[in-house]
Amino acid sequence: MPAYAVIGGQWGDEGKGKIIDYLAGNVAAVIRYGGGANAGHTVVNDKGKFQLHMVPSGICWPGACGIIGNGVVVDADILMGELAELTSRGIDTSRLYVSERAHLIMPYHALLDRLEEEARGDAAIGTTGRGVGPAYLDKTGRMGIRVGDLLDIEGTLAPQLEQTLAFKNQVITKIYGGEALSLTEIMAQCTAWADQLRPYIRPTEQIIQDLLADDKAILLEGAQGTLLDIDHGSYPYVTSSSPSVGGACVGLGLNPQAIAGVLGVFKAYSTRVGEGPMPTEMLDQIGDDLREKAQEYGVTTGRPRRVGWFDAIAGKYSRLVNGFTGMVVTRLDILDGFPSVKVCVGYRVDGKDLDRFPANTSLLAQCQPVYEELPGWDQPTASATSLSQLPQNALDYVRRIEELVGCKVQIISTGPSRDETIEVERVIP
Ligand code: IMP
Predict the structure, then answer these.
(1) 266-423 sits in which CATH class?
(2) For residue 132, which atom of ligand 1 is closest to its CA?
(3) What one-character-per-residue DSSP string does 37-94 give?
(4) Which CATH architecture has domain 103-197?
C-alpha cells in the first residue's frame, strides 16, 4: 500500500489536522515532513480536543505510529510538552519516532526570529515567532544542530554548537544590539533534551521504507499551505519550508512513486495569518461576522486570521503545483445562513484580466478579485454525513469550486469532530 499526502491548498489552517485524524484509522503511520511548531493542528475525537504543534495528528489512533521526518525543524521543548500532555490524557506515545536528520530549533533561533521581525519594521512577515525561519536558514547554511547530534553530544553537537553560537552571538549583539546567549546554558538544555528524546530518535526513512515494503498505507501530514511555500507561495510572505508535495519527498527521503494520492485541503472560504497579499480578503462586516462565527484565531499565536471568499485562481494554482488527485472542502457549515456566497474566478489588474496566481508579490497585491455570486442556503450543512443531507445550494457551491479548481471533491467536512464528515469518494481503499 502506498503513501497518501494531505496538503494545505491555501495559506494554512485549512483543517488538515481533522482530516488526518479522520483518515488515520486506516493507516500504519502519520508522518510530518516539514515545518515546525509554527503549525497548529486541532483534532477533536472521542478522546477530547487536542491542539498539536509538533506531534503528528494521527497520534490518537492506536494502530498508527507517528513520525517526525527529516524535513521538520524540531522544537524539543514543545515536543516534550505535547508528549507529556498526551500521555497524561491516556494516549500511547511510545510509537512516535523522530528523524535523526531533523534539525533542532535552538534558543537563538526563536530570539533571532523576534529580532529579525522587529528589524523588518513595516515589512515584517508576521511570523509565528517560533524560530522556524532561522532554523531553516542554519540548515541550508550548514551550521544547524540535528536531532541525531543529541546522541553524540561530545563528538558532534558540542563543537558545532560552539562554532555556531559564537557566530550567532556576534549577530545578536553587533547587528541587533541584543544580549549574547550562554553556551553553558544551551549545552545543559541539549543534555536534558538528549535524555528525554533518546528513545524516540530513529532513522525514519528506513522505517517509512519498511512500512511501504510491508504493503502498509501511510499518511503524509502537510503543515502550513501551498501559498506559504518558500518556492511556490507569495514570497517573501511565506514560511521557510516546502509545504507542497515536493517537500514530502525531500522531507522524508520518500520515493515520489510511492505517493498514490495527493489530497488538497481547502476551507470553503479563505483565511490567512500574518502579512502579505490576499486578493479576496474581506475587510467589511461580513468578514468580521465570518471570523467570529468560525472563531478564526490562530492556534499557535492566537492572532485573528484574515478572512476572505474562496479564491479559485489560487486554488487552481495550488492544484497544479501539487498535482492534487482529490480535494477536501472543510468548514462548509460556516457558510450556512449567508444570503449569498462569492467565489473569486479571476483577477483584474489595471483593468486587465489575469487568470493565474502571479509570482510577483506587488502584482498579487494589486489583483482585484472578479467574483461569481452564488445563492446561499438556510438549512444547515452542519454535522451532515452524506451528500443527500446537504441543501441543494450548498452542494452546487461545492460542485462549482470543484469545477473551478479542476479537481474532484473526495471529502467534505461539516464540523470539527471526526464523525462530522462526508466521504464523497473513498480516499484510502
Ligand atoms: P513562520 O513560519 O513562523 O516563519 O511564519 C511565516 C508566515 O507563515 C507567517 O505569515 C505565519 O503567520 C505563517 N504561518 C506559519 N505557520 C502557519 C500555520 O500553521 N498556519 C497558518 N499560517 C502559518
Answers:
(1) alpha beta
(2) 4
(3) TT--EEEEETTEEEEESSS-GGGGSTT-EEEE-TTBEE-HHHHHHHHHHHHHTT---T
(4) Orthogonal Bundle (1.10)
